[in-house]
Every structure is written in structure tokens, then in C-alpha cells.
Amino acid sequence: MMLVLITGTSALVLEKSFVHRPIDFLCVLLGLFLTGGSANALNQYFERDIDAQMSRTKSRRPLPLQKISDKEALFFAITIGIAGVLLFLFKYNVLSALLALFTIIFYGFFYTLWLKPNTSQNIVVGGIAGAMAPIIGWAACANSLFTFEPWLLFLIIFLWTPPHFWALALYLKEDYKKVNLPMLPLVKGDEFTIRQMYYYSVLMVVVSLSLALFGSGVVYLIIASTLGGIFLKKLNAMKNNRNAGLERSLFRYSIIYLLAVFMTIIIEGIFKVGQL
Q1: Cα dist. 89→18, 52, 85 in Å?
Q2: Which domains does the chain have, with CATH numbers?
Q3: In this structure, are residues 124 and 163 in contact, taking their beta carbons and an 8 Å threshold?
Q4: CA–CA separation, 238 vs 25, rounded Å?
Q5: Taking the CA of residue 205 as centre, how many other CA atoms within 13 Å lie in the half-sphere pointing to its CB?
Q6: N or C: which end of the chain has fewer CB within 10 A?
Q7: Other C-beta atoms lying within 10 Å of the C-beta of residue 142
Q8: 273 falls in which pLDDT band (50, 70, 90)?
Q9: How many helices (H) and strands (E) does the chain have?
Q10: 158-181 b/e with 16+ CB inside 10 Å = b?
Q11: Measured CA angle at 183 (ends 182, 185), to 5 deg
Q12: How confident is the model at residue 37 (pLDDT cuts 50, 70, 90)?
């Protein structure tokens, strides 16, 4: 959820309309929080039996821990989802509300119930939902998506998602095997998975640098290049020396990478707005 809010904030800062309207700015973030929270809560509700078997989730998530009931979880997921969509609809516009509704349905139902258990490309297609925050935020501000910036932000997250989650799938392969989920390392093998991770990572770095063509400054270019270089270096090290420690390290660094890239966009954008 922190990544959702930060990536959504980057769109608000780049679009600029709400930078000097703090109530609108915060309400968009609240809508993203409710929307993303609903999608994630539905995912946990539908996967509660799987989560109870996996080492990564059984001791961390509230349903396997029986901190709340199934009915309470479903009620919570639906309620905050409706609240988020209605917030976008009545305070902003139909476009942002439809995009928010799409995100909930796509991730909470289509990805969780169909993609994830049936195809090794689940993470690739499912990444659409995870990359929607900048699109929804921009739509709430501008009531339009006919510009490159929100789509570039979307693409960075979309291309980041496969190497991020496949690193997780590599070092938790036995966990996914136990619950019979067709993650790419189990279906195609580790070497194929790492090659795919490399392709997506290179594209991710290229797209992140292309933001410089749309107003991002030298500071962003330097930081994004450095972070991207470290990402590819870690991936190359993992390719040459397979062990769970390197896979875990790449997974953790991928979170730092996305946070740092988007925080740079936000800070640089705020600085530029302050100069106007």
C-alpha cells in the first residue's frame, strides 16, 4: 500500500493541478488507499486457505491467524472498495471511478481467482492492476489520459512487477509448489525465469530513463540510472551464482528501487512546482 500511495503521488505531482490544493491531493490518495486496500483484501479473502499453508503468509496475515472472521474480511473489502469508487465518482469524475472499479475487479477477482491459479504469466498480466495508481491519480486530476507521463509511470511499475515477484517465487519455490500455484520457476524452470526477469528489467530501466524526455531533470536521470544499474548488477549476480540469499536480496532491493525512483520523481516535481 505504501508503494501504491507513493506511485499515485508521483502522478499528482507531475500533473500539478492538485499540488496547491491539499484537500483534493489527500482525497485522491485516500481513494487510492481504499481502492488498493479493497483489491488486496479481496485477494487475501479468496486466498485464505493458500495463505494458511505458505510460510510467507501464514504467520503474518489476519485470516490465517484468525484475527478476524471470513465474513468480516469480505465485508471490509467490499465496503472500502465501494467507498473508494464513490469518492472518485462524486468528488472527481467518472473516468477515475471506472478505473478504480476496474482495479478492484481485475485484481480482486480476475487475477486472484483465474490468472494466478491457471497461468504462469499470472504476475505479468496481474501487474496491470498493481500499476494503476498513477493512471487513476492522473485521471482524477485531469479527467483525461491523453498524455505520455501517466503511461510511462504505469509502464515502470508494470515492467518492475515480473522481476520483483519472480525473485520472490524463486526463493519461495517450494512454498508455491506446496499450494500448486503455477509460478514461472515451477513451470519453465529457474534459468528461463531469470532470462525473463532480465528482459523486463532492462525495459524497466529504459522506460524509467525516458521520463527525462518529458521534463524530469538531471538529478532524476542520475539517480534512476544508478538505481537501475544496481538492479541489473544484482540480477546478473543472481544469474551467475544461484542461491536463495541473492534471490531474497534482489526481491528486497526491488522494493527499494521502486520507492527511490518514485520518491525522486516526487521530490524533483515538488521542487519544480515551487519554482513556478
Answers
A1: 17, 36, 6
A2: 2-275 (1.10.600)
A3: no
A4: 40
A5: 19
A6: C
A7: 20
A8: confident
A9: 14, 0
A10: bbbbbbbbbbbbbbbbebbeebeb
A11: 120
A12: very high
Phi, psi (degrees; rounded to nearest 5) at 18: -100, 5
Judge contact between 152 and 196, C-beta under 8 A.
no
CA distance linking residue 208 with residue 228, whole number of Å: 9
For residue 40, give the nearest of 107, 101, 110, 140 by alpha carbon: 107
pLDDT per residue over 245-257, tens digit each? 899 999 999 999 9
The 10s digit of each residue's pLDDT in 85-120 is 999 999 999 999 999 999 999 999 999 999 999 999
d(CA 174, CA 39): 26
Residues comprising the chain, all counted: 276
Q: What CA–CA distance (Å, rounded) separates 126 from 83?
A: 23
Asked if residues 139 and 145 have their Cβ atoms less than 8 Å apart, the reply is yes
pTM of the predicted protein model: 0.96
Average pLDDT over residues 48-64: 94
Q: How far apart are CA 95 and CA 272, in angstroms?
A: 28
C-alpha cell, 207: 522506460
Residue 163 backbone phi and psi in degrees, to 5: -65, -35
Q: Which of 135, 142, 181, 140 is nearest to 158 (CA)?
A: 135
